[in-house]
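re: ur question from yesterday

yeah so i grabbed the chain u mentioned. its 106 aa long if i counted rite. heres the sequnce exactly as i have it in my notes:
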Amino acid sequence: MSETHGRVRVGLEAELPEGSQTEVSVEGLSVVVVRYEGEFYALRNNCTHKDYPLLGGEVSAGRITCAKHGGKFELATGKAKALPAVKPVKLYRTVLEAGEVYVEPL
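ran it thru and got these structure tokens back, copy pasting raw so excuse formatting
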């Protein structure tokens, strides 16, 4: 996972199946990349409620759930959709280029 000018390679699209979650580091911060319904979403890998990783949380209805206390975040917007989380998580841009998936800061 190489980094060039803030852009980080996640991997080959073909190697990231539906439902996959991959952790990458963007500018020193942990980011979780989720493939959901054929799209890639990238969010800061950190629940805004209690500083707990989102990686591995259940993904359904376009949201990822924090395994610790059940906070839910919308994949497309980062908005908190279930208590105890109230603050959104930071989003990152995903780029698909020549069969490779990349993440970069917005």
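noticed a couple things. The two ends are 19 Å apart (CA to CA). also The CA atoms of residues 44 and 97 lie 22 Å apart.
anyway ttyl
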